[in-house]
Structure formats: C-alpha cells, structure tokens
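REVIEWER CHECKLIST
Item 1: Sequence provided? yes
Item 2: Single chain? yes
Item 3: Sequence as submitted:
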Amino acid sequence: MYVHPGRIASLGIFVPSWFDNPVRTAYRYLQHWMLHPYLWRYLEGGTLRSWGAKTLQESGRRGEPHLAGDGYARIGEGSGSTNVLTGSGVDEAWATGTLLAEGVLELLKAGKPFTKENLEQAYVRRRRASWVEREGRVAEKARDGFQRGVVTGLIGMGLAGLTGGRLSMPGRPRPPHRRLPTIEEYYRGKIPLTEIARLRAECSAKGLPLHGALMDRVGWPAIPYDGRLLVSHQDALLMGGKVQAPAGYADHVVFLHPAVCQQCSVRICIDACSGQAITPGPDGVPAFDHEKCIHCGACLWNCSQPRPGDPEKANVEFRAGGGGLHSAEN
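Item 4: Structure as written out by the authors:
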C-alpha cells in the first residue's frame, strides 16, 4: 500500500505464476485483502477511484517474445527486459524504449518503412548490443534453482551473480499444464463432482467465471458491497474513466485449437481476465471481446492447456493489436 497526498492510497497484491490454484481471481483476492481488519480500519468509508491489473513478465530473457514485426515492435517488461537476478525492471524498460526510438528515427531519416526486417536491423540489433542484453544474459538462468527449492534458488542466484552468469543451479521451469490440478482434483473431498458440474453449467449459462461460485461454496465470506469502495468487478471496470479499445482491429487473443479449449475443465483464462474480456462461449470455447481487453496478459500465463505440437507453449496466443486501459489513471 502506498499513501499519497490528498488522502489517496494505492493498494495492490501479487498473484504469482507459481500459485498452483485453478481458481485465480486478482479482483476478489484484492477485495478480501482490503477487508483485513488492519487495513479496513483505514480504508472504510473510502471511494474507489480506479482499478487496474497487469502482468509483470519477470521471466526476463526466458520470456522474450518476438521483438519486431511488420509495423510493430515490443519494449518494456513485456518484452523480456526484466533483470531476474537484480530484480530490476524500470531502467531496463525505459532503455528498450530509448533504443526503439533511436531505431525509428534512423528509419525515418533513411525513408525506410517499418517492416520486420528494417525494425530488426534498427531496433533489435541495437538491443542485442546494449547493456540490457548483456546483463540479461548474466541473469537468464539465475533463478532456475527455485524449481527445486528455496535454498537451491538462493544458491543459484549467488552463483550467477559471482560468476557473471557462467554458473547457476540447474532447474527446468514446468509449464502450467504440468503443474496445475484440475478443479475436481483441487476440491476433492470438499465439493462433490456432481455439484462442481452443476456450478460450472450454471456459470456458463450466465456467462460468468466459475471462481465466485466455488469460493462461495467452500466458505469464502461474501464481499459486503457498499457501492463506493467495495463494488462488483463489472462496476469497477466502469469507474475511473475506462479507455475503450479502438474498434476495427483483429482479435489479439486467439485460442489456437478450439478442440483443446472444449476439453479443458479449468479455464483460468476466464477467471483471471481482469477486463472481463474473456467469458464462457458456445461449445466450450471461451469468447473474447477485444474492445474490453486491457492487455493485462493474464490469459497467456494462466492457460492450463499445452499447444498441440509445441507443448512448451500454451493454447492461447497473445498477438499485437489494439487494446484499451483499465482507466486513464492507470
């Protein structure tokens, strides 16, 4: 929590990728956290100004996407610039933006179009020769040891730092489909299978994510909505001056193999979507409304289904495209 002048406060929580719970919802978790007696004594009576969520690509170079394509380039934390050894991200993010700006100016002066080939020469080449790349390579495997435990993770970070990345503790990250239990497995002994099936069918018919019904069923307390600070997720998206995504663009969130989605019983992509842009769709395939998407990226790293033919990737593909913002403030 950060306190600002004028009786304004910013509050936030992390929902980490290693949180192996098939029921993930950043918004409701945040509300329960705010209701903790230690915080609520200060927050009670307040008014929600805006709400937002984003994905922090802490995987560094391991999570680097395609950096350039025809008419676009990626910069910032979402482009794999975060240094996972030092925990630094702001300086690296700004540096990638500067490198792209220099590349764009170079192309403009030369009268060259923003093709993938030209952007790779003007921007990606600069980035590969920069301090961001050098330090990113040192840090690339620094946290691999955490796949085996906290102690091995800390030792691995120390080794990587002392040897300039030449040594580290081995450990192979496991993708979500190898870690996440199904909803039936997670709630075994708590909710009968027939009841889970009923709740799933009811939520699908109403176009609602499943997490609320499951959390209510196992005893999570109801949120006491007050119409000011504690409001529904839908109302929160309407507060703070939400910036709608421009119309006319192709969908940038694509479910590559619909048959894979149809047999998925977890669908964290729906529950974790902070913009409510992904909802239960016909025939078991999630529906996506690109004008509601705010590019938080949660669907990408929460997908529990491997991509056929390339199991190291998810069945969700997050492409470049037009998106909105939670609000003009964040």
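Item 5: Key structural point noted by reviewer: The chain has a mean pLDDT of 89.
Item 6: Recommendation: ____
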